[in-house]
Each structure stands twice: as structure tokens, then as C-alpha cells.
Design brief:
Blueprint (H helix, E strand, L loop, with lengths): L3 H11 L3 H12 L4 H14 L9 H14 L5 H16 L4 H6 L2 H12 L9
Helix pairs in contact: 1-4, 3-4, 3-5, 5-7
Length: about 120
């Protein structure tokens, strides 16, 4: 996948559980806002690990597989969307099981985000 629309289509094709979320998003916003939608996708993935919510972990696996595949082809827009609107959303409180299901590219992106530190010499 080299474009954001291709990524979105791949998610919808491979993860039927995302279709209602996508349709609701379009109805509410009257347009597609990729970063907002990915915030919803992040929350859905995290919900797959909540014992009080009847979602199957397979939904999270399918989403993670599509995101991992999307990172195989270099695309600044896709990488940015996944990094800023997925990784940053799941980084703080993601269940440990989620990290074990991530492929190497997603895990690297998560590790880079969690390990980031500001430069030591910041001039006012």
C-alpha cells in the first residue's frame, strides 16, 4: 500500500468489524478524516482486550496485520498516519498482549515512540 486511501480500503476489506465504525464516521463528519478515524480504530483495537467488551482478539490481529503490511512499502503519508494516529494512541495504555501481536515494523515504531527523549541541548 502506498496511499492512505489504499490503506483504508485494505482495512475495510480485511476487517469487516470496521465497516460500521467507518460508516458512522462518514455520517457524523460528512467527510473522511483519516486521523480521526484512526483514533477510533485505536480505541477499537484496545477494546479487543477488554474482558467487558464482546470483541474478539482476531479483530485486533486483522487490523495489526493490515497496518504491518502497509508499513512494508515506503510512504510518508501512510507511515505518518500510522505513527501519529495509531501508535501514539495505543502507546500509553496498550495492553501487553497487543504488543506481542504487533509485527516488527509496528513494534519498532512503538519502541521508537516510547523511547523518544528531547534533545539535551535546547536553547531558549
Amino acid at each position: 500500500m502506498t496511499t492512505v486511501p489504499e490503506l483504508i480500503q485494505a482495512l475495510l476489506d480485511n476487517v469487516p468489524a470496521l465497516r460500521p465504525l467507518y460508516d458512522q464516521h462518514l455520517e457524523y463528519y460528512d467527510e473522511f478524516l483519516s486521523h480521526v478515524f484512526f483514533g477510533d480504530v485505536s480505541r477499537l483495537v484496545e477494546a479487543c482486550f477488554d474482558p467487558d467488551i464482546p470483541l474478539d482478539e482476531d479483530v485486533a490481529r486483522a487490523i495489526l496485520a493490515v497496518l504491518e503490511a502497509a508499513l512494508e512499502a515506503p510512504s510518508d503519508d501512510v507511515d505518518y498516519l500510522i505513527g501519529v494516529s495509531f501508535i501514539e494512541n495505543v502507546a500509553a495504555e496498550s495492553p501487553p498482549r497487543l504488543r506481542t501481536l504487533m509485527g516488527p515494523r509496528l513494534r519498532r515504531m512503538l519502541t521508537d515512540y516510547l523511547d523518544w527523549r528531547p534533545p539535551l541541548a535546547i536553547e531558549p
